[in-house]
Design a protein that fits this description.
heterodimer, A: 246 residues, alpha/beta, Rossmann fold, 7-stranded mixed beta sheet, 4-stranded antiparallel beta sheet, 11 strands, 29% strand, globular, B: 374 residues, alpha+beta, 2 domains, 6-stranded mixed β-barrel, 12 helices, 12 strands, 51% helix
């Protein structure tokens, strides 16, 4: 299993007036291809900040972030969009689909950003929608879809251009349990069948069974890492416990 | 590229209507003001531009055509005797008082020319014949001023400078910038109407022989004929235009109104494009989070501005053409030459792109981390 993202001693301070408020205290985390890592913890524990740093949306105050072997923590701001575009697919809690575009166009847009020619983007968008079982909704608008369907469109969009790392922020929070499990099953399948590294930030205990590893955070620190039975962790970080299905 | 710009624009139809109304308003205002400016400019010098001569000889330091001073016709014979001169004609443009059949007084400009050579004569004659001007009291005027001068048809008799004046023809579209209509008549009649002594003239019109070096001829005439300026037609035309449009401030006023139209357009369009951008700010944040370069997002915003400007321009032109046609029968001509239509198209584009800058500034500063806030 090759490591897709490797984080070492990442610290993050937010400036509040004259003083810096620490949010992350030296995080170490590796996520390998073919693995689903769930990051859990109470509100304010730093999960979303960590996800933002992994997604090159926020910059760490210090520490190292390597994506596909390339150090990105020291890259200039203007180079980060290209890293996101090339390596990372995002799934958001609120779906963040473009309401004025059809389902197909939403996926095409992501391909267009990556420079895929229009005709090929149309074909590819349809193929990706087939993967999430929504090919028949290609010409529908997001407003005509259920929450679960919207999130599946978001998954298809995240997969556009075949990024190696999928980062999902609370992807099941706005969904009923059936739809949430459905989405998580797709993400798990992406990791296991397509060898993607999938990181999911979640509060939702119902999705625990889909994680290969569960990282629990509190107060900006990783307090435990639980590995699913039979799952081989990536080399640098040892497992510190065994996860029991809830 | 998926049609994000177009769809976002069409998404809120009320806002789109407001945007287009703003652009149409600006386009019409710019067309009307620039059209008035062009119309005024053409009108001020039309007599000179249509004179069909090469040089105008005027008394020294005459700034524009209405300000001509009389000089001796001896100079006319000096001009005729100059090598390179093919023909020369004495010419009058001078104020006189018109009395309508109803007894009202109006100021007019009497234009006296040689009815045989027709240099400096009227154009667009729609009724009557130029030859009819050779009778002692004959005049031709423009049909635009019939009502103002109390004239209804050919043969009407009026009073010009206390003398009888008989209408023998009408022109179409020869406007006067000064609101005093041009009254064309034979040179001899014009002398009588303007009280100019028989041995004097206000201008001399010169046609050069083919192949003559005009600047050289002008220099030679200035050296031979004392106390006059010898001006190429184009120069005298531009002097007259400049005087009326800029020295009097008339042109500046309409230009300022055109600039105001442009500014109003920018403000209205900027407001609506900004509001549209704010409506879709989360989508722009998503684009940035996905890795879109700022230039990609600028393209979306500018495309919106571009679509608005093209649609607004087309609608604005429909309204403008209607106004321009309606003005044809009025005292102030609003002209819309195709070159001006092209310039206004690019002005409209520029207006919308400037309007988009505020929005571009906003999306440049979006923090993509906003996408993680539910």
């Amino acid at each position: 299993m090759s490591t897709q993202i490797s984080i070492r001693q990442v610290k993050k301070f937010f400036q509040e007036g004259a003083r810096g408020v620490p949010v992350l205290h030296g995080i170490d985390l590796d996520v390998g291809a073919g693995e689903v890592v769930l990051i859990m913890g109470p509100s304010g524990s730093g999960k979303t900040t960590l996800l933002s740093i992994m997604g090159c949306i926020l910059r760490a105050t210090s520490g190292s972030v390597r994506i596909a072997g390339r150090e990105v923590a020291t890259l200039p701001e203007r180079e980060l969009p290209a890293v996101r575009l090339q390596h990372i697919g995002f799934i958001f809690q609120g779906f963040n689909l473009f309401p004025t575009l059809t389902v197909g166009e939403n996926v095409e847009l992501s391909l267009d950003l990556k420079g895929v020619p229009t005709a090929r983007a149309k074909e590819e968008a349809r193929r990706l929608l087939e993967q999430v079982d929504l090919a028949d909704k290609c010409d529908s608008f997001p407003a005509d879809l259920s929450g679960g369907q919207k999130q599946r469109v978001a998954v298809a969009r995240a997969l556009a251009g075949s990024p190696s790392l999928i980062l999902a922020d609370e992807p099941t929070a706005a969904l009923d349990s059936h739809s949430g499990r459905n989405v998580m099953r797709i993400l798990q399948n992406l990791a296991h069948a397509q060898n993607k590294a999938v990181v999911v930030v979640t509060h939702d205990n119902r999705v625990l069974e889909f994680g290969d590893r569960i990282v629990r955070m509190e107060d900006g620190r990783i307090v435990s890492t639980t590995v699913a039975q039979g799952f081989q962790t990536p080399p640098p970080l040892p497992a510190i416990g065994e996860w029991q299905s809830a | 590229m998926p049609p994000l710009a177009r769809r976002n624009l069409l998404h809120d139809k009320v806002r789109l209507a407001v945007t287009l109304t703003g652009i149409v308003f600006a386009v019409v205002l710019i067309v009307v003001e620039l059209g008035l400016f062009v119309g005024f400019t053409v009108t001020t010098s039309s007599i000179i531009d249509k004179s069909n001569v090469d040089l105008w000889i005027v008394s020294r330091r005459t700034p524009y055509i209405e300000q001509g001073n009389a000089f001796s016709e001896r100079k006319f014979y000096q001009v005729l005797g100059t090598a390179g001169v093919a023909s020369a004609e004495k010419y009058i443009v001078h104020w006189a008082q018109w009395k309508t059949p109803q007894g009202a007084q109006e100021s007019v400009q009497v234009v006296g020319f040689n009815t045989h050579t027709r240099l400096g004569g009227p154009w667009n004659l729609v009724a009557g014949r130029l030859e009819d001007l050779r009778t002692p009291d004959a005049i031709i005027m423009d049909e635009l001023y019939k009502e103002k001068l109390g004239v209804t048809r050919i043969g009407d008799i009026c009073e010009l400078a206390g003398r009888r004046a008989r209408v023998v023809g009408f022109t179409r579209g020869i406007r006067s910038f000064t609101t005093s209509p041009y009254v064309f008549t034979d040179f001899k009649n014009a002398q009588a109407y303007t009280g100019l002594p028989e041995d004097q003239t206000y201008f001399i019109l010169v046609r050069a022989k083919p192949g003559t070096d005009l600047p050289a001829l002008a220099r030679m005439l200035e050296s031979r004929v004392s106390d006059v300026d010898v001006l190429p037609t184009a120069k005298f035309s531009s002097m007259t235009r400049f005087y009326w449009m800029f020295t009097t401030g008339a042109g500046v006023a309409v230009l300022i109104a055109a600039v105001l139209g442009f500014i109003v357009g920018v403000v209205v369009v900027a407001q609506t494009i900004y509001a549209t951008t704010m409506d879709h700010i989360r989508e722009y944040g998503t684009l940035k989070a996905m890795g879109a370069a700022n230039s990609y997002i600028y393209r979306v915003v500018i495309t919106q501005a571009g679509i608005s400007s093209v649609v607004g321009y087309v609608l604005g032109m429909f309204v403008s053409i209607f106004i321009v046609r309606a003005s044809a029968s009025g005292g102030a001509a609003i002209l819309l030459p195709w070159q001006m239509a092209v310039v206004i198209f690019f002005l409209t584009l520029l207006m919308c792109v400037i309007a988009a800058i505020v929005s571009i500034n906003k999306v440049t500063n979006i923090d993509p981390a906003m996408v993680f806030k539910a």
